[in-house]
Amino acid sequence: MQVVEAAVELLESKRALLDPEPKDAVEDLRRAWDTVVEFGATGRGADLARRAGLEILHGRVRRPAAGGWLRADEELVL
User: Which domain of life is it from (predicted)?
Assistant: First the structure.
């Protein structure tokens, strides 16, 4: 249970730093993607934390998609 609590706490701190209107939505997505991959690679990703992280990542994908910056359909990216 400590792992889940630590993961949720980490993701909540990341969510607090989320810029709703980043200057560069593509760079914001790159940083977010790297963070999610790093988190998953450490083996700390419990299901609840994974879902919370993906929710944040989905939000970051939506912004560049809405701006027409993605070459692929948003659903394919996720």
Answer: Bacteria
Burial of 29 (0-12, 13-18, 19+ CB in 10 A): buried
Tokens read off for 28: 């914001």
Query: Mapping DSSP to helix (H, G, I), strand (E, B) and coil, where does residue 40 land?
Result: helix
Give the max Cα distance, the chain: 41
Written as one letter, the residue type at 21 is E
Structure tokens at 6: 């630590």
* C-beta atoms surrounding 59 within 10 Å: 15
Read off the pLDDT of residues 7-58 as tens digits, 9 standing for 90 and up: 677 777 777 777 778 888 888 888 878 877 776 666 655 666 777 778 888 8
